[in-house]
Design goal:
By secondary structure, the chain is mainly alpha-helical. The chain has six helices and three strands. The protein has a three-stranded antiparallel beta sheet with strand order 1-2-3. The protein is globular and about 45 Å long. It starts with a helix and ends in a 21-residue tail after the last helix.
Length: about 160
């Protein structure tokens, strides 16, 4: 995952691309980072609302290491709870700032999606962006030549 995260960060910081592409890449970097630091599945990430980050609002004024945050995630008919690794918290902060920048400095409501389009609608898929990243990283196929699936990062059977 290190190779993928490093390339995602480099692509996110590329000043040669337009603002819309940079925004999409920023969301993708946050998505991959949050997935890595929580173990959440794509459906759980897609369904994630700001209100599902338990303790997040209360922790905004604290240092990352002093925050106590739990994530309540909903997937295919189940719900689970996660404790994110500290390095993932900064990506929630980045997404929070992006939301405020697109909504006249208003904080997101508990029912607003964490991974959102500029107009506040929930992003339904990042497969195109993730596939482009996997391709750029040379990770579309595993060591045996089997294609990886953007949903799981695992070989398709």
């Amino acid at each position: 995952m290190t190779k993928l995260l490093k390339l995602a960060q480099k692509r996110m910081e590329d000043r040669k691309v337009n603002e819309e592409v940079r925004r999409d890449r920023t969301i993708l970097y946050a998505y991959v980072t949050v997935a890595c630091c929580t173990g959440m599945r794509p459906t759980e990430l897609r369904n994630l609302n700001w209100g599902d980050l338990l303790g997040y609002r209360e922790g905004l004024s604290k240092r990352l290491g002093d925050r106590d945050i739990r994530i309540r995630a909903r997937g295919k008919g189940k719900s689970r709870e996660f404790i994110p690794l500290e390095y993932g918290l900064s990506e929630f902060d980045r997404l929070w700032r992006m939301w405020k920048a697109n909504h006249d400095d208003k904080e997101p409501a508990d029912t607003d999606p964490v991974f959102a389009a500029p107009d506040g609608r929930r992003l339904t898929s990042i497969n195109k962006s993730l596939n482009a990243l996997l391709e750029a990283a040379g990770l579309k196929e595993d060591h045996r030549g089997k294609k990886r699936d953007a949903y799981t990062g695992q070989p398709r059977l």
